[in-house]
Design a protein that fits this description.
103 residues; alpha+beta; GMP Synthetase, Chain A, domain 3
């Protein structure tokens, strides 16, 4: 008989009070070249003033790419001067999204 372990989120200690808890994230999947490139970008740019998020995405033609989302046009101009055009062969796209706010 084989026992399969199932991954389950931890029990909610305070039901109905979700605002005090970080969102549940499942364990990471297998590492891919794109995810490793994203990790490099995150390591360097996460926490940079004006950077709101970094994600994996696709170009308009459907090719794998990385996206850096920034708060405003001044941040875009400042970051664009230093942001690499590609990481490990994946293009880096820069997008003004505005600040992220929890609702």
């Amino acid at each position: 008989m084989t026992h399969e372990r199932r991954f389950e989120p931890p029990p909610d200690e305070h039901p109905g009070d979700a605002t005090e808890h970080a969102p549940f994230l499942p364990p990471p999947g297998p590492s891919t070249p794109l995810s490793r490139a994203a990790d490099k970008l995150i390591e360097r740019w996460a926490g940079e003033p004006g950077v709101e998020a970094i994600s994996q995405t696709a170009t308009a033609q459907g090719a794998d790419a990385l996206r850096v989302m920034v708060t405003d046009e001044p941040a875009r101009r400042r970051i664009k001067r230093r942001l690499p055009g590609q990481v490990d062969g994946f293009p880096v796209l820069l997008e003004v999204t505005g600040p992220f706010r929890a609702t």
